[in-house]
Amino acid sequence: HGNLVANAWQLYHWAGRRTARDTLLAVLPFFHSYGLTTCALAGTAMQATLVMHHRFQVGKVLDLFARHRPTIFPAVPAMLVALNERLRNGRADDVKGLEMCISGGASLAEEVASEFSGYSGAVVVEGYGLSEAGPVTHAGPLDGNARPGTIGLPLPDTLARIVDLEDRSQVLGTGEVGQLLVRGPQVMRGYLDSPQATDQAIVDGWLATGDVASCDDDGFFTIVDRIKDLVITSGFNVYPAEVEEVLREFPAVADAAVIGVPDPLRGEVVKAVLTLRPGMKLVEKDLQSFLAGKLSKHKRPREIEVLEGDLPRNFLGKVLRRELRES
């Protein structure tokens, strides 16, 4: 409980000590740590009016925007994508007056944030966290200095550093890629009845997030990928997010997920699971030619699968790579 209270007050101070004049639109589920902290607990710390709705439905949410004129809106990227699609066809006035939107749960595309900011006038920033830490540890600053593509800066009273993927005692320098560790009053005491798992996760108060990240000269952190999603092929590290970003640039590709599949010669090879844009067909030769100009050979998919429907995702919009591996 102390962790949760601490995280609520950290968000209160990060947000600039909001006042009781604020209204927070809460459509994130409170059974998830993100919704519980950013909406219920931080909203209470801010003394904000909470407008609660149990499920994200675009039309209903826009009705709530128009009726209550919220100033704060915690969201996930999939929500902003859906809202943008509706706002392009009208109702942009419904979201006017929103002042701040924090997006979390998955990476936020710069164009999605910019478009929603254009409709609403809000500062749209990306945040980061995990259930073991309240969950929020980082968020973009609200003063106009947020950097697209980053998760921002550590919250007040939060320390963060990048360490070697194999040796957590080796702290890395600016721009180097390694595992993100965090420390602060929102970090859990440990896993219930699991001392071994706790000892693996927390060393000297530093929580291993399991995420691969880097930090720039000004202290802004960028998530590269999950350690468990890392593909190691012929001794080379391949970060799926990097490959997926390039795949989505190909005209026929609507969405992409990259996983590693076992290979007797290379250990693993890169596999791409794709969905296509309506009416488009995939010519694999053309795709490989396109990738050859943008990715090193070891990063290019050796296996490609095209799905008929959408990629499997959870309610936060994260691709369920485990399902893809098992299918």
Which key phrases capture this entry?
327 residues; 9 helices; five-stranded antiparallel sheet; alpha/beta
H/E element string? HEHEHEHEHEEEEEHEEEEEHEEHEH
Radius of gyration: 21 Å
Instruction: Give the total of beta strands.
Output: 17
Beta-strand proportion: 25-35%
How is the main sheet built? 5 strands, mixed
Low-confidence stretches: none
Helix content: 25-40%
What structural class is derived from the secondary structure elements? alpha/beta
Shape type: globular
Largest beta sheet: strand ordering:
3-4-5-6-7
Number of helical stretches of at least 4 residues: 9
Average of pLDDT: 94
Distance between the termini: 39 Å
Written overview of the protein:
With 327 residues, the protein is of the alpha/beta class. Helix content is 27%, strand content 27%. The protein is built from nine helices and 17 strands. The strands form five sheets. The chain has a five-stranded mixed sheet with strand order 3-4-5-6-7. Strands 8, 9, 10, 11 and 12 form a five-stranded antiparallel sheet that branches. The protein has a three-stranded mixed sheet with strand order 15-16-17. α1 packs across α2 (33-45) and α4 (77-87) crosses α5. The longest helix has 13 residues, at 2-14. The radius of gyration is 21 Å and the shape is globular.
